[in-house]
Write a structure and sequence with these properties.
The structure holds 3 protein chains of 3 kinds. By secondary structure, chain A is α/β, with parallel strands linked by helices. Chain A has 19 helices and 21 strands. The longest helix of chain A has 21 residues. Chain A starts with 5 loop residues before the first helix and ends with a helix. By secondary structure, chain B is of the alpha/beta class. Chain B has one domain: Thiamin diphosphate (ThDP)-binding fold, Pyr/PP domains (Rossmann fold). Chain B is built from 10 helices and 8 strands. In chain B, helix 2 crosses helix 8, helix 5 packs across helix 6 and helix 7 packs antiparallel against helix 10. Chain C has a single domain, classed as Ferritin, core subunit, four-helix bundle (Ferritin). The mean pLDDT of chain C is 94. The chains are: A alpha/beta, B alpha/beta, C mainly alpha.
C-alpha cells in the first residue's frame, strides 16, 4: 500500500482505531464499550472486539475499537491510538495490537514501562498521569480519564457522554455518573493541553470525518445476540443451554427473551443433554436450538446423527474457537468445518451454514431455522468467536420473511406413513396430540412407517430421501455472497468475508478488480452455482482461518475450481488481516 | 359420557401397536408392556396424548410396541429428550422407558439431573442387572461376583442403588415393582403418572437369556410391609436397609414440579430488537 | 385360606359371570401373545399349539357369555377390579416361556392355568353364602375340572422332552 500523503493525513479520517489496555480491574473493556457506544450514538459506525489474558478476574485485557464513517467488519492491521492504563503483561498482546510510526501511544508514568514493541515501532509516546488524575476526583477511575482522552483524540464532542453515562450507570446512582463525567472531562482537558499541534503532523488528533448519517435505525449488537434474535425471528421457541466460551452470551440473551415470547430455555447438565432436549422439544413441535463451541459440538454429534435419521429439525449454533480439544477458548478459528459437515458416523447429510458478519448472524441463523424446519433436518450454524463476541454498530438489518414452516401431517386421509417417499423428499410430520398419526421416531434404520428394519431396500430408500430433500431444494441467491467481476476471485467464508471485502476494496483503489465469493451455505454444496460464479476466473485465492486448510479441501472435494488456485490459510489466534489478503491479490498478477 | 365412562371406553389393546416385540420369550419386558397398556387404559388418556421416550437396549424397544407417540433415541439420553418435549408440551403425558445399562450407566448423569429438575414425567427403568442387547455384560446393578465374558470372575464392584440415588437427587415419587406382577405395576404406574413431578419406578424385570437365575425373583419379591411415606429421611432409611425385593410406592414427595410458563407471549418478537437500538 | 384374597370381589351372579368371562378372555389374549412370541422366534410348532389353545379358550369364553344370559359380561367385567397380585388365573405364565419350548411345556402352562381357575371357583363355592352364586360356581368348577382333564389327556400325546430341549448350538446374537 502506498504511504498516505501529508494532505491525506491532514484530512479527517474515514476510520480510526483505538486500543485500550489495562489489567487488574482497570476497566479497559468498559472504556472501549463506552467509546463505541458514544461514537455510534453520534452517528459513526464501529466495531469492538477484545483480547484477554487467561484470568477470570484481574487479568490483562485490551479493548480494540475501530470507528468509521462507514460500516466496519474487521479490525485494522495497525492501531492509530494505543492507551495503556498500565502495561502489565501487555507484551502478550504484541502480535494482536500492532502499531507503527504513525501510531500514538498514551502511557501512564505510574503504569510501568510500555512493551518493547512501542519503541520498535517508533510510535510517539505521550505520558498522561491517568491514575493520579483519577485520584484527584472522588470515586474517579482511570479508565474514564482514558475515555475522555480517546474522545478528544477521535474528535467526539464532549456533549455525547452525559446521556450515555446516565443510561449505563443508572443502577450505580447519580454519584457514579458525576464521578465518571468529571473523569471524562479531565481526560479531554489533559489530551487538549498536550495537543499543541491540533491537526498538524505533530498534533495528537486522529479525528474522524463527520458522519454522513444519524444513528437512527442503527443497532449496537454482538454476533451472538444477532444470532439469538435471528433464531427467535425464525420461529425458535426452545433452547437448551450448557455454558461454554464463546457461546454463553448467546444463551444468556435467549434466557429472558425466549420467556418474553412464550418460549423456554432449559439449562442442561451437559451438551449431550442439551442437544437431546432440543430434539425432544422439536419432536413436540417447537422449533428448537442449542448453541455451543467445538468441545460441545463434539459431544452433540451422536444426537445430530439421530436428528438427521429421525428427521427432526434442530438448529445448533457453533461459535467456533481455537481447537483441537480445549484449544484457545477465547480466540477465533474456522477449524470446525470438517466436524460440522462430516462429524456424524454413517451417511448423515445435514445443513451447514455460516454467517458472514455480525449483522449477518441474524439473517443466517433465521435462514438456518427456516431451512431446518422446512427440510426437517439439523442445521449447524458456524459462527465464530470473532463475530460472536465482537459488538458493532450496524444498519438495522432488513426484515426477511424466513419463518420456519414445518410440513405437518393432517388428521384426515389414509394410514399415516411418517417417512413416506414424497416428491422433494420432505414427508409430513405428525406432532404428539394428533390422533391417528402416532409413530415412533427412531435412530434405527426404518421403513416408511418408522418401523425398525435392516432391509437393504428400506435403508437405501431412506438414505436417498434424506439426501434428496437437501440437494433438490432451491436455496436461491443466499447460498453465497458474490460481488465484483475481476478475473481473480477471493473465495472465503464466515467472518473473513468482511476482511476479504475490505482487501478487495483496497485492491480496487489500486486499480485491480477482484471478485468476492463468500459461501454462506456450506452443506449441501452447490456445484452448479459455484461453477457459474467462477466461470472464466483465472486465479482463485482461497482464504481461511484453519491450519489444515479445511475449507480449501472442502472446495476441492465438491467443486471443480477453474484456473490456478492458491490458499491463504493460517490457524488462529491471530486474525487474518485485510492487508494480507490485499497483498496476496496484488502480488499475484 | 361421564368421565368414568370415557375411561372405561378405553381398553389396553387400544394402546398396543401391531408391531411384535423382539424380546426373548420369558423376558420380563413383555409383562412391563402389559402394565403400560393396562395403566394407559385405566388413565383413559387418548394414546395420541401419551409419548413414550426411550434410549437403547432391550427395554428401550418398548415405544414402538405401544400405540402412543414414541421416540427411540440414542443410548442414555432419553430423559433429556423427554425434558425438552415435556417443557414445551406440558399437556402431554410423558413416560420414559430405560434399562439398567441405558439409565444407570451411560445415562447416569441425566438420571441425577432429571430427579433434581423434577419435571412432571414418569421414568420407568426395567432393571435386569445385565446388558442384554449386547449379549450379557455387567451393568451398574450387576452383583459383584457375577461372571461374564467382559468381567471374568465378576466385577468386584458394589452395585448401584437406583432408588436411594433417585431419592437423594430429588425424585418426587419412588417405587419398586416386579414385572411378574403386571396389575400391581399398572396401578403404580397410574399413580406415578398422576403424581406431579418426576416419578421414578424401578421394575425388576428378569432376563431369561443371560440371567436365568432371575427366574427365582418371583419367589423373592413381596409387597412392602410399610405405608408410603412423604418423609425423605424415613424413605432413605428404609431403602438403605430393605432387601431389594419389596415392591410398592416407597416415597411420595410434595415438591412442586418444574414447568416454565410456555405458550403465553408477553411481547411481540419485534419488541426484542429494542435492546439493540441506539 | 381363600384363593380370592387377590381376586376381584364377587358379590352377585353378574360379578361371577363377569369374572369367569374375563378369565377366559384373558386366556385367549395370553395364548395369542405367546403364539406371536413363538412366531417371532420361529418356533412354528408352538405357534400352532398356542393358537389352538387360544381358540379353545375362545369357545369357553363365548360359552360363559351365553350362560350369563342377560348380563353384559363384557361391560361388567371392565368395570370390575383386576387381580391385585398375580395375574388372571388362566393367563399362562409369560415368565416361563422359552423360544425353544415344546408342546409339553405349553401344556404344562395350560394345565397350571386350568388348575388355578379350578381352585379359584372352588374357593368361591367354599366361601360364598349366596345360593345362586354357589350353584353357578359349582357349574364352573365342573367345567374347569373338565378342562384340567382335557389337558391331561392332551399331555399323553406329548411326553416330557429330554433335558436337552433348551440347548442351542449357536450363541446369542448381539443386537444394537
Amino acid at each position: 500500500m502506498l504511504a498516505p500523503t501529508k494532505e491525506a493525513r491532514m484530512r479527517h479520517r474515514q476510520s480510526v482505531s483505538v486500543a485500550i489496555v489495562g489489567s487488574g480491574g482497570a476497566g479497559a473493556l468498559t472504556a472501549g464499550n463506552f467509546l463505541l457506544e458514544a461514537a455510534s450514538a453520534a452517528g459513526w459506525q464501529g466495531l469492538i472486539s477484545r483480547t484477554v489474558g487467561p484470568q477470570i478476574r484481574g487479568g490483562e485485557a485490551a479493548a480494540l475499537v475501530r470507528l468509521s464513517t462507514r460500516a466496519v467488519e474487521c479490525m485494522p492491521e495497525r492501531f492509530d491510538i494505543l492507551i495503556g492504563l498500565d502495561w502489565a503483561n501487555a507484551h502478550r498482546f504484541g502480535a494482536e495490537i500492532e502499531i507503527g510510526p504513525e501510531s500514538l501511544v498514551i502511557s501512564d508514568p505510574r503504569g510501568g514501562e510500555p512493551p518493547p514493541v512501542v519503541a520498535t515501532a517508533g510510535a510517539r509516546v505521550v505520558e498522561i498521569p491517568m491514575k493520579d488524575m483519577a485520584k484527584a476526583i472522588p470515586e474517579g477511575r482511570p479508565n474514564m480519564i482514558a475515555l475522555g482522552i480517546a474522545g478528544h483524540l477521535v474528535g467526539l464532542g464532549a456533549d455525547t457522554w452525559l446521556a450515555l453515562l446516565e443510561k449505563r450507570l443508572a443502577d450505580k446512582g447519580a454519584d457514579a455518573v458525576e464521578a465518571s463525567w468529571a473523569a471524562i472531562e479531565a481526560g479531554y482537558h489533559a489530551a487538549m493541553s498536550c495537543d499543541a499541534g491540533g491537526e498538524s503532523r505533530t498534533g495528537l488528533g486522529r479525528n474522524l470525518a463527520t458522519p454522513k448519517r444519524s444513528a437512527a435505525r442503527r443497532w449496537l449488537i454482538s454476533g451472538n445476540e444477532a444470532a439469538a434474535l435471528g433464531a427467535i425471528r425464525g420461529g425458535v421457541r426452545f433452547a437448551a443451554a450448557y455454558p461454554i466460551t464463546p457461546a454463553t452470551e448467546l444463551l444468556e440473551w435467549l434466557a429472558p427473551n425466549l420467556a418474553k415470547v412464550g418460549g423456554a430455555l432449559l439449562q442442561a447438565e451437559d451438551e449431550l443433554a442439551a442437544i437431546n432436549m432440543t430434539i425432544g422439544a422439536s419432536f413436540g413441535g417447537a422449533p428448537a436450538l442449542t448453541a455451543t463451541s467445538g468441545p460441545g459440538l463434539s459431544l452433540m454429534i451422536e444426537a445430530l446423527g439421530l436428528a438427521t435419521a429421525a428427521e427432526i429439525p434442530v438448529v445448533v449454533i457453533d461459535v467456533m474457537r481455537g481447537g483441537p480439544s480445549t484449544g484457545i477458548p477465547t480466540k477465533s478459528e474456522q477449524a470446525d468445518l470438517n466436524i460440522a459437515i462430516y462429524g456424524c458416523h454413517g451417511d448423515a447429510p445435514h445443513l451447514v451454514v455460516a454467517p458472514q458478519s455480525i449483522g449477518d448472524c441474524l439473517f443466517t441463523t433465521q435462514w438456518a431455522t427456516y431451512l431446518a424446519e422446512t427440510l426437517q433436518s439439523p442445521a449447524i450454524v458456524l459462527s465464530d468467536q470473532f463475530m460472536g463476541q465482537a459488538r458493532a454498530s450496524i444498519e438495522r438489518p432488513a426484515d426477511v420473511t424466513f419463518i420456519g414452516q414445518r410440513l405437518q401431517a393432517t388428521d384426515t386421509g389414509e394410514a399415516y406413513m411418517r417417512y413416506a417417499i414424497a416428491a422433494g423428499g420432505v414427508s409430513p410430520m405428525a406432532l404428539p396430540g394428533m390422533p391417528g398419526r402416532q409413530y415412533t421416531a427412531d435412530g434405527l434404520t426404518h421403513t416408511v412407517h418408522g418401523t425398525p428394519t435392516s432391509n437393504e431396500r428400506d435403508h437405501n430408500m431412506q438414505l436417498d430421501k434424506r439426501r434428496d430433500k437437501l440437494t433438490q431444494f432451491n436455496y436461491g441467491d443466499h447460498w453465497a455472497t458474490h460481488q465484483g467481476d475481476g478475473d481473480i476471485a477471493v473465495v472465503t467464508w464466515g467472518s473473513l468475508t468482511g476482511t476479504a471485502r475490505e482487501a478487495i476494496g483496497r485492491a480496487a483503489n489500486d486499480g485491480v478488480e477482484a471478485t468476492l465469493l463468500a459461501l454462506r451455505l456450506l452443506y449441501p454444496a452447490q456445484p452448479e452455482r459455484l461453477v457459474a460464479a467462477l466461470d472464466g476466473k483465472k486465479r482463485i485465492l482461497v482464504v481461511e482461518q484453519s491450519h489444515g486448510a479445511q475449507f480449501y479441501r472442502y472446495l476441492r472435494a465438491y467443486y471443480d475450481l477453474p484456473g490456478e488456485v492458491r490458499v491463504l490459510n493460517r490457524a488462529g489466534p491471530l486474525p487474518i488481516r485485510a492487508a494480507e489478503i490485499h497483498r496476496a491479490i496484488m502480488e499475484w498478477r | 359420557m361421564s368421565v368414568v365412562d370415557m375411561r372405561l371406553a378405553r381398553k389396553p389393546a387400544d394402546y398396543k401397536s401391531d408391531i411384535k416385540p423382539v424380546w426373548c420369550p420369558g423376558c420380563g419386558d413383555y409383562h412391563v408392556l402389559l402394565s403400560f397398556t393396562r395403566a394407559f387404559a385405566e388413565l383413559g388418556v387418548p394414546p395420541e396424548n401419551i409419548v413414550v421416550v426411550s434410549g437403547i437396549g432391550c427395554s428401550s424397544r418398548i415405544p414402538a410396541y405401544t400405540n402412543c407417540y414414541g421416540f427411540h433415541g440414542v443410548h442414555g439420553r432419553s430423559l433429556a429428550l423427554a425434558a425438552g418435549l415435556k417443557v414445551m408440551r406440558p399437556e402431554l403425558k410423558v413416560v420414559v422407558a430405560s434399562g439398567d445399562g441405558d439409565g444407570y450407566s451411560i445415562g447416569g448423569n441425566h438420571f441425577l439431573h432429571a430427579c433434581r429438575r423434577n419435571i412432571d414425567m414418569t421414568y420407568v427403568v426395567m432393571d435386569n442387572h445385565i446388558y442384554g442387547m449386547t449379549k450379557g455384560q455387567p451393568s451398574p446393578t450387576t452383583e459383584p461376583e457375577f461372571d461374564t465374558a467382559l468381567s471374568p470372575g465378576g466385577t468386584g464392584l458394589r452395585p448401584f442403588h437406583p432408588l436411594v440415588i433417585a431419592l437423594a437427587s430429588g425424585a418426587n415419587f419412588v417405587a419398586r415393582c416386579f414385572s411378574g406382577e403386571p396389575n400391581e405395576t399398572a396401578s403404580i404406574l397410574v399413580e406415578a403418572i398422576n403424581h406431579p413431578g418426576f416419578s421414578f419406578i424401578e421394575i425388576l424385570s428378569p432376563c431369561v437369556t443371560f440371567r436365568p437365575d432371575e427366574r427365582e425373583w418371583k419367589n423373592l419379591v413381596h409387597p412392602a410391609s410399610v405405608a408410603t411415606t412423604n418423609d425423605p429421611a424415613k424413605a432413605a432409611r428404609r431403602l438403605m436397609t430393605d432387601d431389594g425385593f419389596n415392591t410398592g410406592i416407597l416415597y411420595r414427595g410434595e415438591r412442586k414440579p418444574y414447568q416454565p410458563p410456555v405458550g403465553r407471549p408477553q411481547v411481540d418478537v419485534s419488541e426484542l430488537e429494542r435492546d439493540f437500538e441506539l | 385360606m381363600s384363593a380370592a384374597s387377590n381376586a376381584p370381589e364377587v358379590k352377585n351372579l353378574a360379578d361371577l359371570f363377569a369374572v369367569a368371562y374375563q378369565i377366559e378372555a384373558d386366556a385367549v389374549d395370553r395364548y395369542n401373545l405367546l403364539a406371536d412370541q413363538m412366531e417371532t422366534h420361529n418356533n412354528l410348532e408352538l405357534v400352532a399349539v398356542f393358537r389352538d389353545l387360544s381358540r379353545a379358550e375362545a369357545i369357553h369364553r363365548d360359552e360363559i357369555r351365553r350362560l350369563a344370559g342377560n348380563v353384559d359380561v363384557v361391560a361388567h367385567a371392565r368395570r370390575m377390579a383386576k387381580w391385585s397380585r398375580g395375574e388372571s388365573p388362566e393367563e399362562a405364565s409369560l415368565a416361563d416361556a422359552h423360544y425353544l419350548m415344546t408342546p409339553w411345556h405349553a401344556l404344562q402352562l395350560a394345565l397350571a392355568g386350568e388348575q388355578r381357575a379350578l381352585a379359584f371357583f372352588k374357593s368361591i363355592v367354599e366361601t360364598t353364602n349366596d345360593a345362586e352364586i354357589k350353584k353357578a360356581a359349582d357349574e364352573l368348577v365342573e367345567e374347569e375340572a373338565e378342562h384340567v382333564n382335557l389337558v391331561h389327556r392332551l399331555l399323553r400325546k406329548y411326553p416330557r422332552p429330554a433335558d436337552t430341549w433348551s440347548s442351542d448350538p449357536d450363541p446369542p446374537i448381539s443386537q444394537e
